[in-house]
Amino acid sequence: MTLPINNIICKGLATAAVLLLSLCAFGQKGIGERTTSTDSIGNANREVMHSTTFGLMGVAAVYDSYLRPYIYADGVDFRIQRETARMTNLMDGRISNQTFLDVNIAADLMTDGGPTWYTGGIRYSQGWLYNFRDCNVVNPAERTTRRWNYAAGLQASGYLGGVYIDRSGNNPGQAKFDVMVNATGIVSYTFRCKKHRPLILSYQLTFPFAGAAFSPNYGQSYYEIFELGNYDHNIVFANIFNMPSNRHRLLLDIPIRKGELRLGYDIQVNQARFNNLEYNNTTIDFMIGFTKYFYRR
Fold first, then answer.
1. Architecture of 6-295 per CATH?
2. What share of the chain is helix, strand, coil (3-state, %, to 5)?
3. Which residues are within 8 A (CB) of 124 and not within 5 positions of it... i.e. 6 or more apart?
4. pLDDT tens per residue across span 26-60
5. Dist. CA 200–CA 264, nearest whole Å
6. Segments making up each domain of the chain, as ranges
7. Are the C-beta atoms of residues 240 and 181 closer than 8 Å to each other?
8. Distance between CA atoms of residues 212 and 144, nearest Å
């Protein structure tokens, strides 16, 4: 099975090229200066970052063999993400905490003019990352001694969502639920288009490592599961082999007055192969929003 994501990737790369060509030009105008102080360096463990971003121009493709053995492409995706990151006192202040909430909804039209698929869900994660440099990935621009910053760690995450197709039938919908331990890593780079005006470019990769997920068995209806109580391996052990999913976040923070304008891309490939059933949901979203840094008292 091959998903028709080539057009999706081409659209995403084309938009990314336009974005990257305009970054430095945008960074030259209306950008406020960051302040770097001895106090901020000495109190790095008090730093907190809040970010809210919205997915625009998102595209999606979904395949679910439980509902219908066809590929649906050229869909549209809407996404909201809320992130909070802070430094802690653990391991001499090198451990950062990241809280992440991701909500999306997508509509996918069949290529042959058939019914519409609707997909969506909510994922919440709580992660702890070890920062390998003296600086950190929460707010690296506050310490100008390091351009590159790296962090890696684990997340505990939970997802609740589903897929629905607007046609009649015994199984028009499919529930999605999992509780996972994820591996994640972040790399950030601080640079300047002009003197005293640093920008932060960051990339984060996250993929599920192990956990549990819900799935009907092949040929099993939800009526059998919930009304008749016929359990048939519906809670499965999920891991990197039968759930080879991943999320990529490429972000650019541009200082504007007291906050940051955040631009970037969020690419998610959610795959599962449980109980002789296959699922693949690929989304690419251009993200725009705002980031705010402050210090806890």
1. Beta Barrel (2.40)
2. 15, 60, 25
3. 100, 101, 102, 157, 158
4. 433 333 334 333 344 445 667 889 999 999 778 98
5. 11
6. 6-295
7. no
8. 42
